[in-house]
Design goal:
heterodimer; A: 166 residues; mainly beta; eight-stranded antiparallel sheet; 10 strands; 39% strand; B: mainly beta; three-stranded antiparallel sheet; 1 helix; 3 strands
Chain lengths: 166, 44
């Protein structure tokens, strides 16, 4: 066991929609396929937000002054990720990959991989189906790299904490 | 930025669009291939 920061550890890749035969059980072969777009080097530190906000439901009744609640729904907020731009456009991998309307998956190895850069059995990941709603250039500022934020709809329940088994 | 259409090798009905700059990677993919260009008027 080890506590880890994200920088130098977390890896994120993008795959086209339809890439996984079963998106509830991605395989190492699928994850390492040449169609993988490794966006780790484009993601800004602190730039990834995968909200899982939940709602509570008022369940108070007259039997008590305590405001009882019950668990409600969760999710519903967009996934956002901030990436660096790169120039020329042919090198601007994140920007060109995440065009508006693009559907696909983010595979996020929060704890890294046994071998950085290569998926292997036992590696743990979250798999988020996403559809890019907008890619919004961050306001240009003096002494700051140019960046953009991809805001993504999440059309399915994300796969969390999956350990690659095949 | 130009984009190309790709399709799953085992199901040509599953398609996606990727940047032209990723063409070489897709050609090495075991899952995807680049879709044939649609025929233009006048092509035989």
């Amino acid at each position: 066991m080890a506590r880890k920061i994200g920088a130098g550890v977390l890896e994120i890749s993008f795959y086209p929609s339809g890439h996984f035969a079963n998106d509830q059980a991605p395989t190492s072969t699928e994850l390492n396929d040449a169609a993988e777009v490794d966006l780790t080097g484009f993601l800004t530190d602190g730039g990834l937000a995968t909200p899982f906000d939940g709602s509570v439901v008022d369940n108070a009744d007259m039997s008590s002054k305590f405001n009882k609640t019950a668990s409600g729904t969760f999710g519903g907020n967009p996934l956002t990720a901030e990436f660096f731009r790169d120039f020329p456009l042919s090198a601007d991998t994140a920007w060109s990959t995440l065009a508006r309307g693009t559907a696909g998956y983010f595979a996020i190895a929060r704890g890294g991989k046994a071998t950085p850069g290569t998926w292997a059995i036992g590696d743990e990941l979250d798999l988020w189906a996403i559809e890019v709603v907008t890619r919004n250039p961050v306001d240009v500022a003096r002494n700051e790299m140019q960046r953009f934020t991809a805001e993504c709809a999440v059309p399915a329940v994300p796969l969390e904490d999956f350990a690659v088994v095949a | 930025m130009e984009y190309i259409t790709i399709e799953r090798k085992d199901d040509k009905n599953v398609t996606a669009r990727v940047p032209e700059s990723q063409r070489e990677k897709i050609e090495k993919s075991k899952i995807w291939k680049v879709s044939p260009e649609p025929k233009k008027d006048g092509d035989k």
